[in-house]
Amino acid sequence: MKTTFIKSLFLVLFITNSAFSSHQKLEVKSEKKTLIFQGITVDDNFKFIDEKQVEFLFYDVEEEVEISLYDEELIGVAFEVEWKEVSIYVTDENGENTEETKIIKRIISLKEVQK
Q1: Residue 3 — very low, low, confident or very high, per pLDDT cuts 50/70/90?
Q2: Among 44, 59, 84, 86, which residue has the least CB neighbours within 10 Å?
Q3: What is the reported pTM?
């Protein structure tokens, strides 16, 4: 009886730990690069390019960032952009959570580069 109880307890702890681990957000080390702002895409992503014309799309910006990329005067301006990749839940057309996740790039720091 005691062995059955211990096995059951172990199983409950294992399942609880597994469930908790699967709901943690995935965060990857941040990256930083000098990029030129190109504007906002039709999908509401912030579009930047590097010196080799490689495109970078960012899903959103941390609230702490004081520069508003909705200002059209910033198109063509070079920025030092720091970002991280995070996992977010996808919502449907009604804004309801679909339980599906996707990895996005989020700007965490933005500084204008003086030429």
Answers
A1: low
A2: 44
A3: 0.70
The residue written with tokens 């080799």 in the block is 52
Span 18-45, pLDDT tens digits: 444 444 445 557 899 999 999 999 999 9
Please write down the long-range contacts of 70-74, taking CB distance under 8 Å and 24 or more positions apart.
70/40, 72/39, 74/37
Q: Tell me what pLDDT residue 91 has.
A: 87
Pick the CATH number of 25-112 from 2.40.50, 1.10.287, 2.60.40, 2.60.200: 2.40.50
**Domain residue extents for the chain:** 25-112
Strand order in the sheet with 46-49: 55-58, 46-49, 31-40, 78-91, 97-112, 60-61
Give alpha helix (H) positions in 1-115.
2-22
Inter-CA distances, 15 with 6, 22, 24, 48, 88, Å: 14, 11, 15, 43, 23
Cα 83 from Cα 68, distance rounded (Å): 16
